[in-house]
Write a sequence for this structure.
């Protein structure tokens, strides 16, 4: 039986205590906020009753609003069994509402299981009848009206009634976790500060499964320091700090997070606060603003150099809330800005128009930047052509992540027990249905100096085991959407589809087996599993496909995406990244190939070989050295050659993957081999993916530069880097960051270059490719070589540059191409190596 209550409660009203100076402007930060706290377990288990807490606030609202709200309790059969609704008057102060549910004291027939508590809240400007309470009919009309005004919030949480039991899960050993170590002593406090920075121990590592060669690094990808409006000392932090007035900066944040057991922390600074003002500072200096951003990049790079088992990330939180939406840009090398000073000078490196998300996406795509939707709402945010979370092809390439949950931005909790939490799954679902290829994250949005410590939630990032934790490997993982969101830092969730890992985009024919692989190292079990299905660009509704962790279906023809959501026995939730499946007509072949791998040679030219067979036919074989894709062969006998100097001396492993036309895949057992490069022309090669045979893996910069298009021929293998070649004004950048050992006697960079040009001049260099050495923060240290249309020829020529002067430094090997407005010049680069003796 469904019970409906219209409540006219006396709300508990609390002052927000928000410092207006902490915001760029009041108008920019007007946003209706509503949260729901629904305890997963009852305090008294016999009756199962509990109290649900709703909180409403509207910072800087100019006029009082009526808040209409509805709370629904849904049973395991998806029936609404109880409903509460009411209205509150909201102006300058937050409003708390408590809803008491009697549980079995009100309905003894309630069965055991997982229930859902759903909240809908809508803010509507007061119409002048300030003293009149909304009627039940008016409340219902407001809540049932659908609009895109940006004032509607929906949230839901699971609760357990009685004994829900444990859901059977596939056997899955936890993947190894990041290499963070226990600190021998508490981390030092910031010099001159009274706030100490305590340390903790990161979770212990465990062996990986053979089929999933990844290591999990736990991250918080959303936080602020005193470079914008964060870094507030815990004793006094109640809201945003005035820009650049907080007690703690990026290095303090990285130190704190590392000593709390995190593997990765991003300082995501508000892009419009680098002028140090709560509004536009027309007296500000562009040089000062840009220097502060550069200092943040350098702080992260220096911290990484000193702490190789931790990754410090410094970037931007771009945009405003009201008529906008915040998003993180995780790898921006420049300060993106829309503010100008009184001399009409841009207070940043590159102009981006405020709230123009389509233009921002295009800039990000062209620069190779990747983004995360921060605390997104289903309406009123990220507008493109008036559509919330509006899709563009450039946006799809640029935006990789969506924040599905975060904790209170102004929490001062340091015991990981914060109860102020919000979910944004409905908005992330909307983005997926719009066509965005985004994976779920969960972060803490720390403005106070408790980076990563307010709650146990983390974003799990999967990086190939054996690959170092660097900015390059981190960005590669995000581009591949190999992440999961977890409210429990000791849990993992990896969704596979026919053995392919979440984040991938695959073609399938015949049955599709979806497996939610779950692991927890602290004894938690699973109370519920949900597999969801949607259709990209349908702009429809994501639906629940299954409640089983191992589900086999035959999808309808066309495009689909799937993701898994798991609720643990303690109520904590995990979300996998989606996997995107194009279902094609086929023979229904479900038999995987068989494959084995072998290697011959230990120096010079070595040979990688595979023997593969299939009941229908093998379409390709991929070769992986140390879990890194090294090459592909599409015809038997399957083999490839490799220059041994592209590998370090010592032990390595080779595996081969064989595919058939139906998308079935098999992976060989690992074959061990050793490399013994000698002196002289040998040495140790430092660059990862030097021949580009793994695509863009380990390289950063513009998208599409590394390619295997048939129109351009690589020197070896199937892939090369192609710069320019359009006959139009264009710039292309590609780089890899590398640490040159201080013990090196010499360091030599070599690469093969082919230049083709329609230019006829023999005297003017109209189109250029520069080989630069840049600092880890992107500062140009030297330009050892420049090539142009004057170097055009018919084949590849090897070029060498001496980098011995940079031993003991972490530098970027940086290719920068520039083409003018007519007559194309194409620069092809292949087989890059940085060899040290």
């Amino acid at each position: 039986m469904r019970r409906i209550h219209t409540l006219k409660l006396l709300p508990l009203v609390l002052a927000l205590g928000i410092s207006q100076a902490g915001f760029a402007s009041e108008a920019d930060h007007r946003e209706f906020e509503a949260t729901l706290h629904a305890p997963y377990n009852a305090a008294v288990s016999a009756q199962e009753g509990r109290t649900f807490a709703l909180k409403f606030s509207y910072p800087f609202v100019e006029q009082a609003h009526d808040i209409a709200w509805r709370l629904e309790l849904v049973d395991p059969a998806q029936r609404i069994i109880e409903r509460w609704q009411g209205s509150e008057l909201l102006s300058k102060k937050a409003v708390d509402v408590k809803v008491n549910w009697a549980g079995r004291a009100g309905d003894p027939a309630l069965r055991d299981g997982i229930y859902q508590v759903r909240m809908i809240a809508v803010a509507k400007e007061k119409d002048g009848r300030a003293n009149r309470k909304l009627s039940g009919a008016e409340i219902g009309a407001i809540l049932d009206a659908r609009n895109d005004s940006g004032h509607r919030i929906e949230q839901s949480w699971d609760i357990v009634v009685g004994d829900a039991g444990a859901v059977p899960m596939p056997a899955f050993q936890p993947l190894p976790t990041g290499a963070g170590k226990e600190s021998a002593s508490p981390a030092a406090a910031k010099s001159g500060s009274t706030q100490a920075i305590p340390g903790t121990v990161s979770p212990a590592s465990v062996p990986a499964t053979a089929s999933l060669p990844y290591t999990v690094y736990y991250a918080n990808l959303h936080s602020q320091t005193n470079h914008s409006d964060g870094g507030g000392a815990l004793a006094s932090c109640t809201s945003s700090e005035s820009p650049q007035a907080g007690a703690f900066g990026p290095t303090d944040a990285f130190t704190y997070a590392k000593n709390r057991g995190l593997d990765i922390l991003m300082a995501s600074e508000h892009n419009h606060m680098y002028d140090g003002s709560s509004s536009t500072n027309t007296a500000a200096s562009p040089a000062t603003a840009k220097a502060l951003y550069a200092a943040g990049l350098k702080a992260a790079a220096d911290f990484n150099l000193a702490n190789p088992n931790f990754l410090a990330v410094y970037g931007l939180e771009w945009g405003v809330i009201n008529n906008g939406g915040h998003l993180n840009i995780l790898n921006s090398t420049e300060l993106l800005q829309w503010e100008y000073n009184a001399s009409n000078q841009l207070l940043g490196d590159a102009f981006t128009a405020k709230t123009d998300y389509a233009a921002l996406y295009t800039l990000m795509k062209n620069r190779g930047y990747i983004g995360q939707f921060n605390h997104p709402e289903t309406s009123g945010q990220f507008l493109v052509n008036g559509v919330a979370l509006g899709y563009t092809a450039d946006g799809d390439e640029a935006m990789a992540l969506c924040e599905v949950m975060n904790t209170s931005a102004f929490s001062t909790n340091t015991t990981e027990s914060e109860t102020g939490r919000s979910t944004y799954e409905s908005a992330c679902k909307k983005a997926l249905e719009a066509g965005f290829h985004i994976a779920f994250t969960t972060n803490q949005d720390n403005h106070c100096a408790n980076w990563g410590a307010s709650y146990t939630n983390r974003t799990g990032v999967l990086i190939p085991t054996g690959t170092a934790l660097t900015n390059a490997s981190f960005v590669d993982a995000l581009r591949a959407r190999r992440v999961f969101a977890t409210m429990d830092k000791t849990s993992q969730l990896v969704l596979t589809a026919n053995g392919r890992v979440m984040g991938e985009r695959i073609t399938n024919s015949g049955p599709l087996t979806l497996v939610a692989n779950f692991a927890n190292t602290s004894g938690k079990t699973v109370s519920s599993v949900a597999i969801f299905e949607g259709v990209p660009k349908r702009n429809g509704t994501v639906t629940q496909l299954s409640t089983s962790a191992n589900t086999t279906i035959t999808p309808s023809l066309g495009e689909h995406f799937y993701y898994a959501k798991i609720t643990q026995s303690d109520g904590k939730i995990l979300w996998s990244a989606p996997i995107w499946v194009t279902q094609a007509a086929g023979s229904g072949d479900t038999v995987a190939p068989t494959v084995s791998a072998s290697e011959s040679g230990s120096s010079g030219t070595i040979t990688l070989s595979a023997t593969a067979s299939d009941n229908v036919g093998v379409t390709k074989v991929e070769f992986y050295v140390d879990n890194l894709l090294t090459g592909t062969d599409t015809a038997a006998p399957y083999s490839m050659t490799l220059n041994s100097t592209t590998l370090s001396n010592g032990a390595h492993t080779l595996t081969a993957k064989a595919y058939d036309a139906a998308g079935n895949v098999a992976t060989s057992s690992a074959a061990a081999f050793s490399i013994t490069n000698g002196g002289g022309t040998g040495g140790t090669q430092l660059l990862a993916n030097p021949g580009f045979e793994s695509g863009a893996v380990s390289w950063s910069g513009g998208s599409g530069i590394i390619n295997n298009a048939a129109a351009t021929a690589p020197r070896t293998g199937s892939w090369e880097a192609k710069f320019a070649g359009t006959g139009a004004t264009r710039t292309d950048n590609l780089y890899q960051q590398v640490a040159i050992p201080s013990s090196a006697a010499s360091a030599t960079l070599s690469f093969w270059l082919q230049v083709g040009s329609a230019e006829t001049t023999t005297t003017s260099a109209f189109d250029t490719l520069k080989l630069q050495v840049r600092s880890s923060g992107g500062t140009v240290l030297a330009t050892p070589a420049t090539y142009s249309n004057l170097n055009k020829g018919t084949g590849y020529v090897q070029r060498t540059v001496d980098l011995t002067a940079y031993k003991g430094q972490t530098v970027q090997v940086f290719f920068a191409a520039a083409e003018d407005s007519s007559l194309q010049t194409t620069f092809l680069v292949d087989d890059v190596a940085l060899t040290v003796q």
